[in-house]
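Quick one:
INPUT:
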């Protein structure tokens, strides 16, 4: 039974989000056929898609942003017209904010809206025995359409991750969303589009072909906005000549460096420039809708650099949109792309130092199947290396919070606590620090301060829920016979149920995958 429990623990923790607590144990179901338990999710392709009441398409959300911005502008103009002729002097003691960009302002607004007091976050003042009672809080401000949408998208994602039986496909979604990341902190459009980007460009393809996902991602308005391709004009295009403005290479560079070939994948600066020219004209329709439905992907012929381009030694003489689509298809099939994707895939699921033989096997499958991502995932599950490697990967903050919610059978009804704790732990949802996404290594998440913050959150969860839960029962749900004797003894010796629950959440069985 111990061997079966260990394999079941690998099935749930390495490939999923951990066992769900409650009346029946996922660990028991996984023990009889661990590989089959995980593979079962791959046969339910429609289960990857995410639909929930109120979630809208990217064009609908774009139009909502444009309408909201118009309302804000009109309100400001009305307030300015109604203001008295003489403005009273400013408060000399008020802090000054210099050169605050529009993007930064949008980010601050969004963070303030999402930063509801988390129910499971330990506050420093709460740890002081004689602390004064907190001051009365101001009434919360109503959420605007951008904030409401972001929270609704976050809640739908969190609920799916909490409820799904194993979680392998949700882990695949999170992996590819981080690989092809955008940042919601870029501005209002990025924030309202972050969830729709994942639903529309990532989820339909995680069990499909890499080339199809690549095209969907690079043509999605959220990616075009995030990496400024709507500002890129071919120098010899009609728009480029009229506006005296040229290329923006941001998207082209990240396609080569982060999305396909990888660093050292054989491209040069000249290739970056060529690809930037090839994808000029890839943009989205603005608020006026002159090129199409506002907020939808469009190809602007007037902005496209005319003529053939040479990329990685191959000449692309196709006209218009087709030139970029053919180039992307070739990048998806490039040997460097296969190596880069296989290495990153194994590093995420197995070990920081990915086994070379397993990487080579996945690379070969990627090449042989023309980038079939389901075939690559199946090969991973069929490999002995993926099951025998010790559970040494530290769960990311997102993994940790979702795994805790699953074990405690707490389906979120509001995303505020999760969003707040993700911010606290350094992994704000859909907001990585750069276009390379969040890091995927123990060194990134295992710093002492990071672990202390996890302990604070675990302690607060224990204080809230520990009275009504037997942590030893939860340990049985989480690991059964695979739980170490040390973890069991530590929980048994805890001074209270609250402390025992916190120790369980911080145990290797809950922190490692």
């Amino acid at each position: 039974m111990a061997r079966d429990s260990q394999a079941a623990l690998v099935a749930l923790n390495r490939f999923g989000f951990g066992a769900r607590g409650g009346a029946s144990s996922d660990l028991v179901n996984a023990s009889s056929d661990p590989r089959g338990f995980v593979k079962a999710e791959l046969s339910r392709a429609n289960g990857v898609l995410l639909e929930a009441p109120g979630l809208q398409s990217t064009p609908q959300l774009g139009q909502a942003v444009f309408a909201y911005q118009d309302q804000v502008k009109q309100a400001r103009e009305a307030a300015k017209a109604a203001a008295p002729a003489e403005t009273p002097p400013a408060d000399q003691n008020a802090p000054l904010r210099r050169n605050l960009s529009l993007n930064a302002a949008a980010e601050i607004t969004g963070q303030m809206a999402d930063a509801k007091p988390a129910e499971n976050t330990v506050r420093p003042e709460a740890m002081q025995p004689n602390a004064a009672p907190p001051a009365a809080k101001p009434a919360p401000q109503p959420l605007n359409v951008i904030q409401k949408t972001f929270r609704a998208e976050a809640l739908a994602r969190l609920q799916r991750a909490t409820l799904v039986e194993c979680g392998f496909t949700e882990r695949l979604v999170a992996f590819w969303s981080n690989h092809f990341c955008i940042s919601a902190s870029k501005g209002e459009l990025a924030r309202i589009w972050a969830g729709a980007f994942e639903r529309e460009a990532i989820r339909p393809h995680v069990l499909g072909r890499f080339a199809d996902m690549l095209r969907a991602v690079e043509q999605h308005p959220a990616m075009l906005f995030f990496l400024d391709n709507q500002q890129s004009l071919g120098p010899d295009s009609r728009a480029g000549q009229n506006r005296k403005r040229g290329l923006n290479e941001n998207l082209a560079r990240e396609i080569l460096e982060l999305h396909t070939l990888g660093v050292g994948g054989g491209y040069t600066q000249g290739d970056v420039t060529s690809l930037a020219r090839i994808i000029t004209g890839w943009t989205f329709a603005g608020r006026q809708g002159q090129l199409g439905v506002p907020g939808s992907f469009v190809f602007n012929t007037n902005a496209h650099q005319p003529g053939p381009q040479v990329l990685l030694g191959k000449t692309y003489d196709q006209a218009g949109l087709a030139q970029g689509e053919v180039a992307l298809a070739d990048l998806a099939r490039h040997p460097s792309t296969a190596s880069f994707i296989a290495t990153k895939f194994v590093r995420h699921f197995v070990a920081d130092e990915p086994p070379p033989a397993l990487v080579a096997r996945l690379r070969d499958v990627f090449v042989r199947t023309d980038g079939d991502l389901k075939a690559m995932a199946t090969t991973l599950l069929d490999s002995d290396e993926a099951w025998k490697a010790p559970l040494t990967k530290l769960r990311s903050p997102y993994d940790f919070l979702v795994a805790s919610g699953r074990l405690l059978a707490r389906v979120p009804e509001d995303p505020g606590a999760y969003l707040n704790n993700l911010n606290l732990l350094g992994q704000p949802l859909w907001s990585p620090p750069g276009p390379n996404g969040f890091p995927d290594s123990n060194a990134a998440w295992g710093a002492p301060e990071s672990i202390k913050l996890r302990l604070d959150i675990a302690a607060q969860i224990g204080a809230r829920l520990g009275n009504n839960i037997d942590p030893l029962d939860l340990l049985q749900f989480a690991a059964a016979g695979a739980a170490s004797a040390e973890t069991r003894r530590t929980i048994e010796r805890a001074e209270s149920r609250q402390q025992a629950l916190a120790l369980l959440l911080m145990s290797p069985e809950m922190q490692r995958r």
